[in-house]
Amino acid sequence: MMSKAERRSYQLPHSIIPQTNGEQGDALNIMHNAFGIDGIGSRILQLILKADCGSTNILSSLTTKIGSLFAVDACIVVSSQTNDNNLNQISYWHKDPTNYSIKDRLIKELSHLSLNKDQSDRHLIDDSKPHLFNFLEQLFQETSPTLTWLGTMTVYQQQANGLILLLKSNSSTWSNSEQELLTQTSDSMAIAISQIQLQQKAQTKARYQSLLKNLSREINYSSHPKLLFNRCLTEVGTTLKLDRGMVLMLKYQNPLQAKSRRNKPVKGTVEIASVWNANQNLEFEDGLFFSFNQSNLCQQAWQNAPQCLYFQADRLFPDLDTANLPDTLPNQGSALLMMPLMGKKNNNTSSAVVLGFLVLQHNCDYYWSEDELDLIDWVGVQISTAVMHHQTLNQVQSIVDERTAQLKWSLDVQAKLSEKMRQHIDQLQKLNQLKDDFMNSMSHELKTPLTSMKIAIKMLRQAQISPQMREKYLNILEQEWNREYSLIKDLLTLQQVESGELDYSPQELDLNQTIEHLSQSFNHKWHSDKGINLETKISEPNLKINTDGSSLTHILNELLLNAGKYSDADTTIELSAESQTTLRGKDIVIAIANYGAGITPEELPHIFDKFRRGQGVTDRAVPGTGLGLALVQYLVEHLNGTIEVKSELLDSDDSIFVTTFVLKLPQFQPAIS
To answer: What DSSP designation does 317 have?
Structure first.
């Protein structure tokens, strides 16, 4: 075993190292005498103190300075990460700026180089470190067989934190003074590399703090999760220098099994809610879904929740069949991290639901550091909280909407009830008006006949009454009795119709005979009183109808009576009857028209209401109770027919109305047993 002094001056055993070149040795001695060991260290430390650029540029400047001071062909400085698993930071310098033939291979290999973490003594790399020496010997033999190399580790606070490698052509060899100078230079470089690493950590911490601040602001101001996802992925991807990131949201087929992760594959769908790419030219389609059981990585991450699932290399995502992927979302990547987005736990014994995943990717191998894992865990918690907050707001909004709908429905119901109440009040007012009209009409219809009968009885009791006067007063008594009887009969008939007790006995009737009989009775009454004629027109000589005879006679008689009441003197009432073919068979259509006082448009819809009489008919002493047309409508419906009325001004005279009642009855009806 060699001593420390012997190890410092030990010549590297390399079969292709040539003999010492005196000219180069003299140049190195001149440089050594000019600067000295302390001078070189001071230059390095001054470069660190004066530098205001990034750590990568400082390391590059140091590499250039050392290469120039040692007058070598190339210089490599490795800054080894001592507190995490990130790749080493490599700086490469060559005296010929265009000569980078071995740069990429050296950087790739040295990035994974693991230095001795517990090294307590600085020294050159020699055969006392067989593993590291063999690795470097093989590396340079493969990458640069025409160069000889000399290296030393930098040790700070008893831990190796870097590596310095000098390369020059194989026409030269390394002198003892060069080895000694490199060994002594490593002290300053160890401090410099340590400062660079501290600066890197400070810069990383500053980036992380900026990320946390930006994300906190975005979470506070983003109103929708997808906007938050996009902004969070942009911030995280930029800060961590990722190649791609996405947010996946889960929708379970059976939500009751979402909390149970007992090695059972969960069923559901995965929505790719947001995608971020370092390559901004890639476009992303909204609404991409795939089945949960199609992705083994999703299943594995779900089983591993709430712990983060991450890989350093060789992981493509999404790990789906290419046929199931859109063109805008190829599966790619090498290093992968899947942070679960956890829901709220209901109690201490149950598991939280996995809401989705925050997926981060590098396209090359990458070692996720503890600081990065802690940062991503914080981001996942904040995203989960924002998603739960949004879901809670949606639930609250849904409840508010439901309560608002219920309140609106209640207000609508109250408005309808108020409208119903208003309608009932209007109906009551109308009923009161009808009652008043009815009482006025009934008072007139009852008092007038009774007064006439009383006068007739008083006159008949006179002793010297002539036979002619006796006959006259007897006729008055008979007429007024018939009038009272008709009123009572109408009231009883109306009661029977409304209660459904009115008999229906269809029979075949000859309309010609029925109308002829009514015509004689009409002419006897109205021709002598007002000079009104009745003109009839029947389409067939023997027009038959199968219906209830009593009801039909009552209907026609009431319509003719009503026409006579409201016809002007010396006018003609027209009655027509014909048979018409309809979809339901044959109908008898009977129309009765009169000329005189019409019906106002306001009164027309109420013409068939009970006890409803037109405006001013009582004042004009038109007899009636308001029951006639109401009873007509009931009897028409009783006969399965319809009745309509219209009242229009006569073309030749704007003071005379033509009022027409049109009655339609089925011509043939089977008898009801």
So the answer is: B
The three-state secondary structure class of 161 is strand
> How many other C-beta atoms can be found within 10 angstroms of the C-beta atom of residue 416?
10
Question: What are the tens digits of pLDDT across the range 321-334?
Answer: 766 666 667 778 88
Q: What is the mean pLDDT of residues 345-357?
A: 78
Residue 96 Ramachandran class (φ > 0 left, ψ -120 to 50 alpha, else beta): beta
Look up the pTM and report it.
0.51
DSSP tag of 467? H
Is the dihedral angle over the CA atoms 374, 379, 380, 381 positive or is it negative? positive
Return the sign of the alpha-carbon dihedral for residues 257, 259, 262, 263.
positive
Positive or negative, the CA dihedral 183, 184, 186, 187 is: positive
Cis peptide before 306 (omega within 30 of 0): yes
Six token digits for residue 212: 């946390």
- In the chain the domains, ranked by start, together with CATH numbers, are 4-204 (3.30.450.40), 222-368 (3.30.450.40), 503-666 (3.30.565.10)
Instruction: Note whether 666 and 584 are within 8 A (CB).
Output: yes
**Residue 645 backbone zone (phi > 0: left; psi -120 to 50: alpha; other: beta):** beta
Helices (H), 500-548: 511-522, 528-530
Tokens of 301: 């991450």
pLDDT in tens, 30-84: 444 444 445 666 666 666 656 555 556 788 888 888 888 888 888 889 888 655 4
Decide if 367 contacts 310 (C-beta within 8 A): no
Calpha distance 304→306 (Å, rounded): 6
CB 339 within 8 Å of CB 357? yes
